[in-house]
Specification:
333 residues; alpha/beta; Rossmann fold; seven-stranded parallel sheet; three-stranded mixed sheet; 12 helices; binds nicotinamide-adenine-dinucleotide; binds thymidine-5'-diphospho-beta-D-xylose
Length: 333
């Protein structure tokens, strides 16, 4: 078994690769992994067990047709994580989001088709549905993405579906809620706030802080992706939810508590443009069809995540200060 993992040096992709190489997925204990990753500001070699004998790392762009056509043959499956993933950056400039998320996905799918890669999982997101005030989205819900990031993910999600429908590619799509856990880039809410607190820097809370997200531990997301890979039906979409709904203010209070700081660290800053109010997934389908259930209790997962950042300042200081994002700077961080 040989698996091509795109974006495997990022937050979620690297968790998937580390777990797979550690023998965490039944039946894949001896699988070989090829990671293709461009190592953008979000990708980090240190996220991977670089010299593992069953890992091959290729630094490259998923939009490069020649490279991916050379790489795809010989792989049994592809799990496609690579993307520009940060909403705020897509508000500053959308072109890289369209190039990588839409063009890169199409390029990879063409290569999989011509190489005869037998199984593909396309990792999408709950943000493709837009924003929902009450209730939760099933997989049949119409797509109404609001940010350029979400729109580019919706486009790639539909491109992926079209390769199943038109060409018969054996492909499954997953749409997950907000992830948290170790190795997440400190541009995202939880690692940004934890690392700011560890450095004594204020927390830029957007707007009234009442936007709601459903938080799922990265280990639960990756286990669900593996279930989709091994048991998911072709052409089907599976929501991956079952996390914990929290307002941003609620998350902030939990983090303040875990780090031993108080609310004087909060700075209310201008709201994100077009800020989605609430995301909520109905994950009945993946529970009933694939036997998925999240395992990491939120309070424990969050405490472990905070402890990981406390224990690994070398990792996040290098990432945060090397790539001090324009976004964080404009937010006054
Ligand atoms: P991330 O930004 O941490 O990692 C993305 C990785 O893709 C990086 O290693 C980066 O170098 C690589 N990459 C970017 N452009 C590339 C290109 N052109 N060619 C090759 N590699 C490229 O993102 P993440 O949070 O790990 O998200 C992974 C996937 O999961 C994305 O598709 C994202 O849309 C999806 N997702 C994320 C979340 C979340 O909460 N983080 C939730 C649901 C779905
Ligand atoms: O400084 C901040 N202050 C703040 O209040 C940041 C970075 C975020 N926020 C708010 C905005 C959101 O309501 O926190 C919430 C979470 O923000 P992000 O961590 O940027 O995540 P989100 O925009 O919800 O998108 C995430 O979940 C879905 C991932 O980044 C996406 O890749 C995934 O598809």
């Amino acid at each position: 078994m040989k698996v091509l993992v795109t974006g495997g040096a990022g937050f979620i992709g690297s968790h998937y690769v580390r777990t797979l190489l550690e023998g965490g997925y039944e039946g894949y204990e001896s699988a070989h992994v090829t990671v293709i990753d461009k190592l953008t500001y979000a990708g980090n070699r240190d996220n991977l067990p670089y010299s593992h004998p069953r890992l091959e790392f290729v630094q490259g762009d998923i939009c490069d047709p020649r490279l991916v056509r050379e790489l795809a043959p010989g792989h049994d499956a592809m799990v496609h994580f690579a993307a520009e993933s940060h909403v705020d950056r897509s508000l500053e400039s959308a072109s890289e989001f369209v190039r990588t998320n839409v063009g890169g996905t199409q390029n990879l799918l063409d290569a999989c088709l011509s190489a005869g890669v037998e199984r593909v999982v396309h990792v999408s997101t709950d943000e493709v549905y837009g924003s929902i005030e009450k209730g939760s989205w099933t997989e049949e819900w119409p797509l109404a993405p609001n940010s350029p990031y979400a729109a580019s993910k919706a486009a790639s999600d539909l491109i992926a579906r079209s390769y199943w429908r038109t060409h018969g590619l054996d492909l499954t799509i997953t749409r997950c809620s907000n992830n948290y856990g170790p190795y997440q880039h400190p541009e995202k809410l939880i690692p940004l706030f934890v690392t700011n607190l560890l450095e004594g820097v204020p927390l830029p809370l957007y707007g009234d802080g009442l936007n709601i997200r459903e938080w799922l531990h990265v280990d639960d997301h990756c286990r669900a992706i593996q279930l989709a890979l091994t048991k998911g039906r072709a052409g089907e979409i599976y929501n991956i939810g079952g996390g914990n709904e929290q307002t941003n203010r609620g998350i902030t209070d939990l983090l303040l508590d875990l780090v031993g700081a108080d609310s004087s660290m909060i700075r209310r800053v201008a709201d994100r443009k077009g800020h989605d109010l609430r995301y909520a997934l109905d994950e009945t389908k993946i529970r009933e069809e694939l036997g998925y259930a999240p395992r990491v209790p939120f309070a424990q997962g969050l405490a472990d995540t905070v402890a990981w950042y406390q224990d690994n300042p070398g990792w996040w200081k290098a990432v945060k200060h090397r790539h001090a994002g324009a976004v964080a700077e404009t937010a006054g961080v």
